[in-house]
Amino acid sequence: MTTPALLSVSGLSKRFGRVVTASDVTFEVPAGRALGIVGPNGAGKSTLLNLINGTLPSDSGTIAFDGADVTRVGAARRSEIGIGRSYQIPRPFGGMTVFENVLVGARFAGGARGSAAHEQAYDALVRTGLAHLAGTRAGSLRLLDRKRLELARALATSPRLILLDEIAGGLTERELPALVDVIAGLRDDGLAVVWIEHIVHALMAVVDELMCIAAGEVVAIGDPADVMADPRVFEVYLGSPAEVVP
Ligand SMILES: Nc1ncnc2c1ncn2[C@@H]1O[C@H](COP(=O)(O)OP(=O)(O)OP(=O)(O)O)[C@@H](O)[C@H]1O
Predict the structure, then answer these.
(1) Distance 42 CA to ligand 1 centre (A)
(2) Which part of the chain is the ABC transporter domain (predicted)?
């Protein structure tokens, strides 16, 4: 029996003038599964996350979440129903504590109130291994903990689907496993994960499926090792082959 998809994207297309950023993109992600997305710079990866979380409207195609068509649903509502998102450039409130930063996520992006917001925020800190730093000023965190905070802010909205945009960027080889473990834990807890990442070996340690896109088109999708071995994937990376070597 196949697991029904939590996220179902079908024939999704988007262009900015002459630049095609999504062209007939189709894929599914069930709960408890992780999809990795790779592709050269400017391929349309971040745009795809913006289409899924509703910060950008698509030109055509459909996005279904938990069986409901959300293609024309606004970003705030998508966040409330369980689509969470981290950003490539985290912008924490440096003068606020770690807990206060996550509380903002729970209250304003997640729509939680009172003690429920506090519980969601604390739970997000526990899941990301940040609880011991709850009272620390966010501006003083080292990079790994800033990444955990970005993840915690997205988790504070209690998502069932989490969209991660290059969350591992800038981490050292020694730091990467800690973040990879947190993300694998979220998937194992039943979240659907869509993770864009240039650090391919970090992705390969977690994802169940891998999709390569270039110029908005799906070049290959499927078993991660098969996708990385696909000559078409190698070809789209010819400009930057070092990025694909695990
Ligand atoms: N709001 C926008 N208006 C116009 N063009 C845009 C907009 N957002 C993205 N683009 C263009 O769409 C293309 C895809 O951008 P996108 O950020 O999705 O790529 P990416 O695959 O995430 O790249 P990177 O790996 O560098 O982050 C780029 O050419 C970009 O300049």
Answers:
(1) 5
(2) 7-240
